[in-house]
Amino acid sequence: MKEKMPHYFLAIPLPEEIKSLLYAYSMSLKKEMHFKKWVLQEDYHITLSFLGPSSVLQLESLVFHIQQITSRHEPFSLQLLDIHTFGLTDAPRVLWVNVLTDKELFDLQEKVKEACKKVGFHVDERQYRPHITLAKRWTGNVPFQTNQMPSLNQMQWICNKITLYQVDPRRIPNYIPIDEFSLVT
Question: Motif HXTX 1 residues (predicted)?
């Protein structure tokens, strides 16, 4: 039986204090909103590019390119805004937190995406929508109501690094940090 290659993605990690606040917020929503899976606090992140399976050589090449990008990109501010959903209005696939976006985040994501392509990864070409996933797959007995979503206090932090994660669905947490790239200060 052929063993599957691990999957990877590049993302902006969240500071522990933001993760803790988001988790407390998420647990308060859990009482009212019935989703099949609630994301663990340790797995919160903002995806820049999903990579899928990768060889060691491909990852080594990608690490070189990401180091080049982060050595020329300054830290920038990020801010949480409000809650949204992906999927059907009355039975959403994903409950997520919107991130106040600025040019710096989109520039960084575009450079990361181009580096991924250069190394041979197939990247998502849809418009980039930075977000933090809180829960997946609505399981409520009644249709999901958007008026159930309370407002989120605006939390702000400085993005100063990118992390390369390996996905391991058999492990808790599911995402293992493999490498970290600091933005230049």
Answer: 45-48
47 near 9, Cβ under 8 Å?
Answer: yes
pTM of the complete model: 0.91
For residue 1, being part of any structural domain is answered with no
Asked whether residue 176 is assigned to any structural domain, the reply reads: yes
Does 17 fall in a domain? yes
CATH assignment of the domain containing 129: 3.90.1140.10
Element at 1 (helix H, strand E):
none
Nearest one of 32, 25, 31 to 134, comparing CA atoms: 25
Amino acid at 97: V
> Is the residue at 74 inside a domain?
yes
What is the domain range of residue 155? Answer: 7-182
Total tally of structural domains belonging to the chain? 1
Tokens at residue 87, please? 């999927």
Q: In DSSP terms, which residues pair with 44 in a beta bridge?
A: none
Q: What is the pLDDT along the chain (185 residues), one digit of tens a residue?
A: 445 778 999 999 999 999 999 999 899 888 888 999 999 999 999 999 999 999 899 999 999 999 999 999 999 999 988 888 999 888 899 999 988 878 999 999 999 999 999 999 999 889 999 999 999 999 988 888 766 565 666 688 999 999 999 999 888 999 999 999 999 86
Would you please indicate which residues are annotated as catalytic (active-site) residues? 45, 131
